[in-house]
Design brief:
Layout lengths: L2 E2 L7 E2 H14 L9 H22 L1 H27 L6 H36 L2 H8 L7 H6 L1
Antiparallel strand pairs: 1-2
Helix pairs in contact: 2-3, 2-4, 3-4
Length: 152
């Protein structure tokens, strides 16, 4: 039996592949990947990756996650629209993976830097304050008055 593997199925009859090829020839509509698709995807990753990296520092993880989610939704929509309207194959997977990796790396870096700074401050205060007063001061809610903080 003439079975062929495709990206969508493990085995497809060869006759079906031939029928699809003949259908594309008769209709005159071929799937194609434009020459500018790869540079456009790389430019998209570069521009939005820089925006996400800057937003991680400026607006925090939530703001950059919103931008990243919108960027991924846009590239998926654009890929579908290009396929549906012009028969172009534009890959939404590579930009999605790259932007997610940029977001996770940037967020991890900011988190680790914040934790290192927090530990540095904690160690600095632990040299000048008694341990029991330091523990009591840490548990006071942030909305308390400054007099309550100094009373501990």
């Amino acid at each position: 039996m003439d079975l062929r593997a495709t990206p969508l199925e493990a085995s497809v009859p060869g006759v079906e592949l031939h029928a699809q090829a003949v259908e594309q020839i008769i209709r005159g509509s071929y799937l194609m990947r434009p020459d500018f698709a790869t540079p456009a995807e790389l430019l998209y990753i570069l521009v939005l990756g820089l925006l996400i990296a800057v937003l991680i520092y400026r607006a925090g993880a939530l703001g950059s996650a919103v931008l990243g989610g919108l960027a991924v939704a846009f590239v998926v929509w654009l890929s579908w629209h290009a396929f549906n309207s012009w028969g172009w194959l534009v890959d939404p997977v590579y930009p999605t993976i790259a932007l997610t990796a940029i977001y996770l790396t940037g967020s991890s870096f900011v988190f680790l830097r914040t934790e290192r700074e927090r530990n540095r401050v904690r160690n600095a205060f632990s040299h000048y304050m008694r341990p029991h007063s330091w523990n009591g001061w840490r548990t006071i809610p942030s909305g308390s008055s400054s007099a309550a903080r100094t009373a501990t």
